[in-house]
């Protein structure tokens, strides 16, 4: 928009307008006109905010004392625009039981975990229900914010500027176990679009843990020495000669056909066949580091570091002198749990054992 009687203009990508060519305003433009202008800065993945500078000129705008006309320029005008070259986002499709998905979804009852007990953790690319968790989060380069996302043409219901997520059904009646491809479509607030595909696996087969006479669980201290008592809450567990097989997750991970172990502490000794009492324990899903896994004669040896003897227990204040027990099941990437249970050795807590504490620096005013 113009004021007065300008008939020329200058444009630049910097405030140094003096060296830029002077261009005539098209005749008949009235008080406004459009110009195509090439911004000269490079654009990367992150947002750019270039500024364009302009000056209007009235070539006969001022009369000198000698009666001559000379140009009258306007003040330097400027405007900044944000350039968004496309959608920049992370896309997640997979396990609705992992902690990050659980924190977003909140309500796990809607997951229809018809297989019964299962672990609330696992491989992010697997699910044991006919649902998957879909999530799109904006990265630093997404400067105009997210607007919508769909998973296999199902629009996600939970939408905010930087995160879109939902629990999405597999669009197949009575789906069979195996891989599924999800087409994800994302739009931002300036109508940039992104289409991507992700693959996840439906796996409802329980891993098989076969207790053997030679299968052992050993409790270790920080020096990797076997112990039967401890004065610290943190111990390590060594598993040897564990017979574990699995369909689904195990088929794609032959060197480690299990994601981890389901471990529970107990202040009572239970029979490993007492499924009712075992079901009452507070089981913790613990991932096993693949670098600790070795295989010999079809049996697996592996290590679980930093297990707490207080995990899942409520009576921890007066625990000194108590003998405790632990029980272990195998879990696969989808969180399916083995039916069979292996019992660990008893461990006695010393009288001076204390729960974990957090010590804050003292502040004196």
Q: Can I get a quick summary?
A:
This protein has 365 residues and is mainly β. It has helices spanning 99-105, 249-252, 275-278; strands spanning 8-12, 23-24, 51-63, 69-73, 77-80, 89-94, 126-127, 131-138, 146-151, 154-155, 158-159, 163-169, 178-188, 193-202, 208-210, 216-220, 229-230, 234-245, 260-266, 284-287, 294-296, 299-308, 323-331, 342-343, 347-349.
Can you walk through the features of this model?
The protein is mainly β and 365 residues long. It has three helices and 25 strands. The strands form five sheets. Strands 17, 19, 20, 23, 24 and 25 form a six-stranded mixed β-sheet that branches. Strands 1, 2, 3, 4 and 5 form a five-stranded antiparallel β-sheet that branches. A five-stranded mixed β-sheet has the order 7-14-13-9-10, with no helix packed on it. The longest helix is centred in the first third of the chain and has 7 residues, at 99-105. The model has no long low-confidence stretch (mean pLDDT 87).
């Amino acid at each position: 928009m113009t004021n007065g009687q300008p008939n020329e203009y200058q444009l630049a990508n910097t405030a140094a307008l003096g060296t830029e060519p002077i261009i005539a305003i098209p005749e008949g433009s009235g008080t406004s006109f459009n110009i195509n202008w090439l911004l000269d800065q490079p654009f990367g993945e992150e947002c750019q905010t270039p500024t364009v500078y302009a000056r209007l000129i009235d070539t006969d705008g001022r009369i000198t004392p000698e009666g001559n006309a000379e140009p009258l320029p306007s003040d330097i005008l400027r405007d900044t625009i944000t350039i968004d070259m496309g959608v920049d986002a992370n896309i997640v499709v997979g396990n609705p039981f992992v902690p990050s998905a659980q924190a977003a979804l909140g309500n796990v009852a809607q997951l229809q975990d018809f297989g019964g007990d299962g672990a609330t953790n696992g491989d992010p690319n697997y699910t044991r229900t006919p649902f998957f968790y879909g999530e799109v989060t904006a990265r630093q380069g997404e400067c105009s914010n997210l607007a919508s996302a769909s998973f296999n043409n199902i629009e996600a219901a939970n939408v905010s500027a930087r995160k879109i997520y939902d629990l999405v059904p597999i669009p197949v009646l009575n789906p069979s176990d195996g891989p599924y491809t999800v087409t994800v479509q994302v739009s931002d607030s300036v109508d940039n679009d992104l289409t991507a595909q992700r693959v996840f696996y439906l796996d409802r087969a329980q891993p098989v843990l076969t207790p053997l006479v030679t299968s052992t669980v050993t409790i270790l201290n920080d020096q990797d020495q076997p112990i039967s008592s401890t004065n610290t809450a943190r111990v390590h567990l060594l598993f040897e000669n564990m017979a574990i097989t699995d369909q689904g997750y195990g088929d794609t991970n032959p060197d480690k056909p299990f994601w981890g172990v389901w471990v529970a502490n107990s202040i009572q000794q239970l029979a490993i066949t007492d499924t009712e009492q075992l079901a009452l324990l507070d089981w913790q899903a613990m991932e096993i580091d693949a670098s600790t896994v070795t295989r010999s004669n079809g049996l697996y040896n592996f290590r679980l570091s930093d297990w707490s003897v207080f995990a899942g227990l409520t009576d921890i204040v007066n625990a000194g002198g108590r003998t405790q027990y632990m029980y272990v099941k195998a879990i696969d990437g989808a969180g399916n749990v083995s039916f069979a249970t292996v019992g660990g050795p008893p461990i006695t807590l010393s009288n001076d054992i204390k729960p974990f504490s957090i010590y804050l620096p003292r502040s004196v005013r």
